[in-house]
Design a protein that fits this description.
By secondary structure, the protein is an alpha/beta fold. Helices cover 35% and strands 25% of the residues. Strands 1, 2, 3, 6, 7, 8 and 9 form a seven-stranded mixed sheet that branches. The protein has a two-stranded antiparallel sheet with strand order 4-5. The longest helix has 24 residues. The radius of gyration is 18 Å and the shape is elongated.
């Protein structure tokens, strides 16, 4: 209810934060040693846990209550579709990153069981227990996934897929790179890079989005491939 009362931009920012996304300032250029590396470790990637299907056009409270029931039902249908089709967001991202690093003649070593843990401040992650055989390691995690409608007056539900990436120096634990990517809905938020998707992945209403969810999954796959390409590009490997 509170998020719905915000503007579309503010709501999106709140949703990203709810998924532990980071709207980072422009990332610093990777040091020369990182640019020249030939092997990078990738820590375990988990599937997104936050499903968000929302109408952010700011309708009346009466229509909000009706729409909220539709959206909650759509969330359940979306979650069930993911299970029924065994769609693995994390697997798609790992495969896409592996291909993109290979194009740069860099080997990506996937350490599925290695992950950071919540730091003492309860807000950030720390990686002191992570053991890698490379100079740097990449951390990738998902924010919210779903569909957002922001169009006026005609409805247009666009995919929502938020992906965050950071590169860590394995020896010093210093963060070398941090960025948030958002595919589908274009958000004018500092530090978030929007990734445009083909219009065929846009749906006129929630019900059609759910009935054509296979096309939606195709859109998420396309989005992850584009984001993986940009992650490797932005890290600055030569």
């Amino acid at each position: 209810m509170k998020i719905r009362s915000l503007s579309a931009m503010a709501a999106f920012a709140a949703l990203c934060l709810a998924g532990r996304a980071v709207a980072a300032d422009p990332a610093p250029a990777a040091p020369a040693a990182t640019q020249a590396t030939k092997v990078v470790s990738l820590l375990g990637v988990s599937d997104p846990t936050l499903i968000l299907i929302r109408d952010l056009t700011g309708k009346s409270m009466l229509s909000f209550e009706a729409d909220r029931k539709i959206e909650l039902d759509a969330n359940r249908r979306f979650e069930q579709a993911v299970k029924d089709r065994n769609f693995k967001f994390a697997g798609v991202m790992v495969d896409a990153l592996t291909r993109e690093f290979k194009k740069k003649n860099v080997t990506l070593t996937y350490l599925k069981d290695q992950k950071g843990k919540l730091a003492a401040d309860g807000k950030s992650d720390e990686y002191s227990a992570v053991k890698v055989g490379t100079d740097t390691f990449l951390v990738v995690w998902f924010g919210p996934v779903g569909f957002l409608n922001i169009a006026k007056p005609k409805m247009a539900y666009k995919p929502l897929l938020v992906v965050n990436a950071k590169l860590i120096d394995a020896k010093t634990q210093r963060m070398l790179f941090l960025k948030t990517y958002n595919a589908g809905y274009a958000a004018a938020i500092k530090g978030v890079e929007n990734v445009e998707l083909d219009m065929r992945y846009t749906f006129p209403d929630v019900d059609k989005a759910m009935k054509r969810i296979d096309l939606g999954f195709e859109g998420y796959t396309a989005a992850e491939k584009l984001i993986a390409e940009r992650i490797v590009r932005d890290i600055g490997l030569k």
